Amino acid sequence: MGGSLHYFCVLSESLLIPQAHTLSYDAGCNLNYQELANNIKQWGQELGFQQIAIADVALNEHEEHLQNWLAAGFHGEMNYMARHGTKRSRPDELQPGTVRVISARMDYLPPDTQIVEVLNDASKAFISRYTLGRDYHKLIRKRLTQLGKRVEDAIGHYGYRAFVDSAPVLEKALAEKAGLGWIGKHTLLLDRSAGSWFFLGEIYVDIPLPVDEPVSAHCGKCSACIDICPTQAIVAPYRLDSRKCISYLTIELHGPIPEALRKPMGNRVFGCDDCQLVCPWNRFAKFTQEDDFKPRHQLQDRTLVELFMWDEETYLRNTEGSAIRRIGYQRWLRNLAVGLGNAPSTPDVIAALQARAHHESELVREHVCWALTQHTGAAKTE
């Protein structure tokens, strides 16, 4: 997520963590490290990454920022953000022996997904563009592992471990330190030639590769991302209160969505891309070349009613291999109920909500009741 969770956080650590290779590389061997670093970048591009860069593991400033963010409670229910102490900001504690991090970027924005058109049509369901296709975790982790193995083929056994939202890793901080971009005011990573519509992944290594230089920040006086946020979750430049963020509300939050934030959610039912959509640097973003990231099941242009009427079997079938699957069927209906509460009062919308009014899940029933009230209340005032 510069992404997202290209996003403000890493995803839940319930994801499978790849087994680490034993760190036993002899750092005293005679290698041309600069040549090896150049080769790694070339091999990474051959594997489909748009950019590869290398950072050291000193993240003192970012560690302080993380601790302040946690102390403010901005992580909400994402307890995993605080669970591992300093392992998140000290790579060598997470993986002993780590001295460098290979940071990788892969573009994910599908072409022709009509972002503005869907957002402006209150009968449609807006799903964050990073999750329209197959789950990126497996694809990127596989490519990173292939890159790590290619290095091993070239130099012999060494220690490495690949991560894609699968462990406590400060991926945006490491990418910024490696020079893949700068962390913008919306807390996503930005690149002058690529915007922010990309995923990040890392390989922790125990070989002293030459590091790349960070780039300077170029947000300037622009506040477009802060101004556009539907729930005003960007409480200050570079400071996100996740508890207000629609990505958090629709993906990370397990219980009821706070009523005060339901109307501002509009038709955003899985994630939110508004801050990326208005960022001037995204005029330079490139469309993905990966077929796996392109939309499946027409999720880029579905109505709220259509998706709300999926039974659980249909939901599971149509979200197989998708990041959407992780929220489960009940939260899927919860999110869609909020969208329907904000949709135009049509017979189809009312009928769909009434069909779920007695759903077995209290969470679903409560949000359906709220949604129906939005329509009945509106009708009484006409």
Automatic annotation (TrEMBL):
Residues reported to bind [4Fe-4S] cluster 2:
229, 245, 272, 275
**Source superkingdom:** Bacteria
Cofactor binding description: Binds 2 [4Fe-4S] clusters per monomer.
Cofactor(s) demanded = [4Fe-4S] cluster; cob(II)alamin
Q: Could you name the Gene Ontology cellular component terms for this entry?
A: cytoplasm
Instruction: Give the chief site where it resides.
Output: cytoplasm
Binding residues for [4Fe-4S] cluster 1: 219, 222, 225, 279
Indicate whether Cytoplasm appears among the record's keywords. yes
Locate the active site.
165 (proton donor)
Tell me what reaction this enzyme catalyses: epoxyqueuosine(34) in tRNA + AH2 = queuosine(34) in tRNA + A + H2O
Write one Gene Ontology MF term. Answer: 4 iron, 4 sulfur cluster binding
Q: In which pathway does it act?
A: tRNA modification; tRNA-queuosine biosynthesis
Residue span, 4Fe-4S ferredoxin-type domain: 207-239
Gene Ontology biological-process annotations? tRNA queuosine(34) biosynthetic process
Transmembrane regions listed in the UniProt entry: none
Parts forming coiled coils: none
Q: Which Pfam families match?
A: Fer4_16, QueG_DUF1730
Keyword list (alphabetical) reads: 4Fe-4S, Cobalamin, Cobalt, Cytoplasm, Iron, Iron-sulfur, Metal-binding, Oxidoreductase, Queuosine biosynthesis, tRNA processing
Q: Provide the assembly information.
A: Monomer.
Q: What does this protein do?
A: Catalyzes the conversion of epoxyqueuosine (oQ) to queuosine (Q), which is a hypermodified base found in the wobble positions of tRNA(Asp), tRNA(Asn), tRNA(His) and tRNA(Tyr).
What family, per the record? Belongs to the QueG family.
The name this protein goes by in its record: Epoxyqueuosine reductase
* Gene giving rise to this polypeptide: queG
